[in-house]
Amino acid sequence: PTGTPYTTQKPPPPPPIVPPDPARLARSLLNHITTFQSCVSSLEKCAKPIIAVLHGYCYGLGVDLSLCADVRICDKDTKFSVKEVDIGIAADVGTLSRLGKSVGNASWVKDVCLTARQFDAAEALAMGFVSQVTDKEGKKGCMEEALRWAALVAEKSPVAVQGTKELLNWSRDRGVEDGLRYTAVWNAAMVQTGDTGAAMKASTGKRKPRFEKL
Predict the structure, then answer these.
(1) 128-145: per-residue pLDDT in tens?
(2) Is residue 206 left, alpha or beta, with left meaning phi > 0 and alpha meaning psi from -120 to 50?
(3) What phi-psi label fits residue 34: left (phi over 0), alpha (psi between -120 and 50 degrees) or beta?
(4) Alpha carbon of residue 7 to chain centroid
(5) pLDDT band at 76; cut points 50, 70, 90
(6) Is the pLDDT of residue 95 over 70?
(7) HEC readout, the chain
(8) Which residue among 20, 143, 145, 164 is least crowded, i.e. fewest CB within 10 A of its CB?
(9) How far lies 21's CA from each of 18, 24, 25, 27, in Å?
(10) d(CA 91, CA 116)
(11) 92-131 b/e with 16+ CB inside 10 Å = b?
(12) Is the predicted pLDDT of residue 182 greater than 60, yes or no?
């Protein structure tokens, strides 16, 4: 006879599934989380001011990213939520570390983070989460207001603007004395800029100053 002979022998069982080592799995997750945190934090580390324009629904990561901005503007219909507890995790890329420092009300922060409840633009403004609620509806209205704010800041000395952001962010996470010392060292160098004289001359001449790009 030709062909493959018939056999009743069973194939070998598949190799057993070995669960990953908990320490190695934890290390892998740690690398993933810290890389994600660094990505989000890069907005905060940008030397230039960042504006977050918020409209529609701002949930979870939207809150994380907006907290890295220097100014948050939204329209009156924007809805917010720190949503992570509803999906079984603690927010891990910035909200739990930054929200309390942004609004200064620990009870309210724990309220919205522990319940994942939705809060609206009026509450966000009242608590200091946003600096402005526009009367114009939707993304277009918010963008117009953000560009107006950006144009106002762009008229200032870039040395002064970027220095102010650096000092505010540095002092936020430290004591007053440390902040004063860092400011003194920073300005010992930065007050030597020619922008100071240009700004004073423009002010006395009642005209807008012009500054070199930084």
Answers:
(1) 999 999 988 788 989 999
(2) left
(3) alpha
(4) 66
(5) very high
(6) yes
(7) CCCCCCCCCCCCCCCCCCCCCHHHHHHHHHHHHHHHHHHHHHHHHCCCCCEEEECCEEECHHHHHHCCCCEEEEECCCEEECCHHHHCCCCCCCHHHHHHHHHCCHHHHHHHHHHCCCEEHHHHHHHCCCCEEECCCHHHHHHHHHHHHHHHHHCCCHHHHHHHHHHHHHHHCCCHHHHHHHHHHHHHHHCCCCHHHHHHHHHHCCCCCCCCCC
(8) 20
(9) 9, 5, 6, 10
(10) 11
(11) ebbbbebbeebbeeeebbeebbeebeebebeebbebebbe
(12) yes
Token pair recorded at residue 54: 């918020």
Distance separating alpha carbons of residues 90 and 88, to the nearest angstrom = 7
Show the tokens assigned to 95: 């909200």
Over the chain, what is the mean pLDDT? 92
Nearest to 208 by CA among 198, 149, 192, 164: 198
Q: How many residues does the chain have?
A: 214
CA angle 165–110–146, rounded 5-degree value: 35
**Token pair 């603007």 is at which residue?**
161
